[in-house]
Amino acid sequence: MQHRSVKIVATGKYLPKQKVTAQQLADKLDISPHWIARKSGVMTRYFVTDETASYMGAIAAQQALTAAQLTLADIDCIICANAVAQQAIPCTAALVQQHLQHLQPPLGLPVPIPAFDINATCLSFIAALDTLSYLIQAGRYHRILIVSSDIASIAMDWSNHESCTLFGDGAAAAIIEKSSDTAAILASRLETYSSGAALAQCLGGGNKHHPQEHPAHPERFVFQMQGQAIYRMATKILPGFVQRLFEPVGFTMSDMKMVIPHQASLMAMRLLRKQLHIPEQALMVIAHDHGNTVAASIPMALHEAIQQRRIQRGDRILLLGTAAGFSAGAMVLEY
Amino acid sequence: MQHRSVKIVATGKYLPKQKVTAQQLADKLDISPHWIARKSGVMTRYFVTDETASYMGAIAAQQALTAAQLTLADIDCIICANAVAQQAIPCTAALVQQHLQHLQPPLGLPVPIPAFDINATCLSFIAALDTLSYLIQAGRYHRILIVSSDIASIAMDWSNHESCTLFGDGAAAAIIEKSSDTAAILASRLETYSSGAALAQCLGGGNKHHPQEHPAHPERFVFQMQGQAIYRMATKILPGFVQRLFEPVGFTMSDMKMVIPHQASLMAMRLLRKQLHIPEQALMVIAHDHGNTVAASIPMALHEAIQQRRIQRGDRILLLGTAAGFSAGAMVLEY
Known about the structure:
The structure is a homodimer. Chain A is α/β, with parallel strands linked by helices. Chain A has helices spanning 22-29, 33-39, 53-67, 92-103, 124-137, 161-164, 227-246, 266-275, 287-290, 297-307, and strands at 6-14, 18-21, 44-47, 77-80, 115-119, 143-150, 170-178, 184-192, 200-201, 224-225, 258-261, 316-323, 327-334. Chain A has a 5-stranded mixed beta sheet with strand order 1-7-6-4-5, with helices on both faces. In chain A, a hairpin with a 3-residue loop joins strand 12 and strand 13 (327-334). In chain A, helix 7 (227-246) runs parallel beside helix 8. Chain A is globular and about 55 Å long. The mean pLDDT of chain A is 94. At the A-B interface, helix 4, strand 5, helix 5, strand 8 and strand 9 of A face helix 4, strand 5, helix 5, strand 8 and strand 9 of B. Strand 5 (115-119) of chain A pairs antiparallel with strand 5 of chain B, so a sheet runs across the interface.
């Protein structure tokens, strides 16, 4: 069953206090700001100072709750859809719940809403929305809060200028519930090609490499990517992937009012647009002033599309991206 | 909707090559093996040498596939349900897929099955089985492989004898599909009380504490638990939790042929048995010769219950546990 009567009720976003311009980054890295403009095109991104992933996620969630005129008491499940957890144990969703209970006005006893994480790297938001929509459809949960919050700046390889001028930190949140109108998820698809698992990776941070290896092997604890190989893999996979997404439901790209892509890089999005024949005005781009905010990137671009009134209720939109794994993921929804 | 026509088709298990006895651990820690026997009761556990979490998970998965007379080509989604990822990026499920493609006999082109992680710490298996069952029920996926694989030994606090004599490494896997008989998930429930988020934690390993903090703060990179406070919280929450699980479906504990608990510790399971009035022969205990294998603990105990013929098709069983978060989770199923 592809169709799910699930509605995105409201969204929220949080950007760290510290804004970092291309000029500032150029000074730090001793490179030209024009190189950054030309190569990554990210002129502004935000890096955390004292913010944690769960704190950013909770602020984004609070914004979504306020927009929907809801409180935490109206939510019956919290999903954290990050690429990287805040800490090894417990899951980040429990830490988001903890922050939210402090942020929200007191509601008597804290509600023990289930809280767990879903991780498909940069596609975590699509994977979470896709998966949890079936639980909304079945009536298991009435209203779910999905939070994506990532901090790329902590594991940046500062010697790789292509990669470190691309990323930013931040969070976005969405509240979903059963739709009582035409708003719905119309199709969704996820494919993982693990032959590309090493094309984008951070080897540390899990149970394979202990932090005590850091002095001898600092490269294991930073994000490493093979940009060219990823482009090649994406180019090869995406056209067929989009066809497999659209075919069962009879859509074509021209049926999409707006495409909300993972903001991998401006270059990757240009490639995407050209290859999939997406009109320029139908592609939501926020990478130039947000950077690639990892798993927060897709919900953040969705939030911006809603805020800037580039999508309206009733519009058919496509969420689309690739992620480390290597995975491709997409969802067609009527907003 | 509580009832889902979902069947656990087969299970598998992997224990690391290196067996560690209470005597060996006593020698290493310079404590008495009798203290370990009395305090943790774990006489045997296994620690990885060269095994990774994805490798262990793939071997357990292969065992489940063989038992079900299936191959990877019969699976259309892979979920990794660990407490801790193998590495920060990508998700562990992609790495399990990669291993499985090498282990399984060649099947032509690798199948790009979606692969992502679900994390509810020690309750990850219940959370994954619970969540994905709705996608099986709805026909989104036909057959899902759920793998839980954790390596506790890498982040053990060797100065905390109570904690470090408890844990073991290992993996377990289960294959689920739409049921064509009475096998089903009858009820499930998950509650997170984030006021207890700090009772069991490992602060490092995520985007909050960089490994470069390790020399100055080694305690941030080991698992810390407040055993007594966790017991108190579990004691307070569990009776009401089980009531909230059973009430909507009209069950009592005496309807359960077998209870498969998270193997937190032998002491915790004695408490559970007493408090919830579970007959001794109805509680599946494997902690004494496996240790607490974190998220792998519940599916591993389920696998052992099946292998030892303590549960048969048609039996009503209860999976039950608590996890860092603090969370309680449970599921009633007809096996």
